[in-house]
Write a structure and sequence with these properties.
The protein is an alpha/beta fold. The protein has 2 domains: 200 residues, Glycogen Phosphorylase B (Rossmann fold, 3-Layer(aba) Sandwich); 165 residues, Rossmann fold. It has 14 helices and 15 strands. Helix 1 crosses helix 14 and helix 2 packs parallel to helix 3. The radius of gyration is 21 Å and the shape is globular.
């Protein structure tokens, strides 16, 4: 039974100050995490005041939203002067029972926790920092990132890790094990469910590979495009890429030469994301490092066979419900996986069923928010 179901009808509503992300021009899992979790909490009667920095092209902030000004430098957000004063004023007005920060909200993560501390408000952080396989060079770099972030995280009363592996990394960086709780990312399995794709009808593809996410170096989307093209498939075989990032221009040049590769830009509207994922015969995520990819969970929930590298928690999430390939070397594993799934429709159907079942059983948003709300109430003063 959900925690919210056992509250007295006249109990004071739980108030949460949530520091997260609006959907921006690049599109990313942090924005999706904020959007779906805040919506689910509000649907339960939790009062949420949502803080985020504006990024070019975003719509008006949602109700009970506080828009802050900042500079976005790739994956880092720098709050402009005056932001902390505004946060302090809004906290005084709203009087939250809990402050929750989606790391990295900005370089003010630790300062927000200190503001909460001074007001005797419990502060919770969800850590979205990626992590890689234990013995890779990328993993060693990311370990140093965790150590660098440790002083900020020390100011939080509770830390939400995405997995046991990430929890171990946080402990290694000096965090108190008693303050760390594992709550994996989750997907709304009622909305992201199998069904017909209008996009698939429109593009008239016989076999469609989909990538959705940031177009930055660690995602290796140009590698995916080249692997797809090396298959030598016909013109009715398409690679659909949704997202934006530092490698967009490189991919635009490649797509201009190869009409089978199509760039769709950022797709942030939920119904359009569902439609794109339903169009896929295969969803591919070839990252070098991840936390736990929401796009991957969404593809699995829609019932699509997936190919994913064993980065962060992604390989464990996929398990035998998809094809897990090594982070390095990416080839020939990626090309072989694409060819295998292309040639075996029965395998695709079996993996699709397994992916949907795994998402529903282990990564549903309802269960995730139950645990998050329970954490809030256990910390509430």
């Amino acid at each position: 039974m959900a925690v919210s179901e056992v509250l007295e009808p006249d109990a004071e509503p739980l108030r949460v100050a949530w520091f997260g992300h609006f959907q921006g021009r690049h599109g990313n899992g942090l924005a999706a995490y904020s959007r779906q979790t805040v919506a689910a909490l509000r649907a339960r009667g939790v009062e949420v005041l949502f803080f985020a920095h504006r990024e070019g092209g975003v719509a008006t902030p949602p109700r009970q939203g506080v828009e802050l000004r900042g500079l976005h430098l790739k994956t880092v957000t720098v709050s402009l002067p005056g932001s902390l004063d505004r946060i302090e004023a809004e906290l005084s007005r709203f009087r939250p029972h809990v402050v929750h920060v989606s790391v990295s909200f900005s370089l003010l993560d630790g300062a927000v926790a200190s503001l909460a501390q001074h007001r005797h408000i419990p502060a919770v952080a969800t850590v979205h920092l990626p992590y890689g396989s234990l013995h890779s060079a990328r993993a060693r770099v990311l370990r140093e990132v965790y150590r660098f972030q440790a002083w900020r995280l020390a100011r939080f009363d509770s830390i939400v890790a995405l997995s046991e592996g990430q929890r171990a990394l946080l402990i290694e960086s000096g965090r108190d094990p008693a303050r760390i709780v594992v709550i994996p990312n989750a997907v709304d399995t009622d909305r992201f469910r199998p069904g017909r794709s209008h996009l698939r009808t429109d593009v008239k593809g016989r076999f469609i590979v989909v990538y959705m996410g940031r177009l930055d170096a660690e995602k290796r989307v140009p590698h995916l495009a080249r692997s797809f093209l090396r298959q030598g498939w016909g013109e009715d075989h398409l690679l659909l890429i949704a997202g934006n990032g530092t490698q967009r221009r490189q991919l635009q040049r490649l797509a201009a030469e190869h009409p089978q590769v199509r760039l769709l830009g950022v797709i942030s509207e939920e119904e359009a994301r569902v439609d794109l994922l339903r169009a896929a015969d295969v969803f591919v995520l070839p990252s070098t490092a991840e936390g736990l990819s929401l796009a991957l969970l969404e593809a699995m929930s829609v019932g699509r066979p997936v190919i994913a590298t064993d980065a962060g928690e992604d390989g464990t999430v996929v398990g035998d419900a998809g094809v897990v390939i090594p982070v390095s070397p990416l080839e020939p594993a990626l090309s072989e996986a694409l060819g295998r799934l292309h040639d075996d429709a029965s395998l695709r159907r079996r993996l699709a069923r397994g992916a949907r079942a795994r998402a529903v059983e282990s990564y549903s948003l309802r269960t995730n928010v139950d645990r998050l709300e329970e954490l809030y109430r256990s910390r509430k003063q």
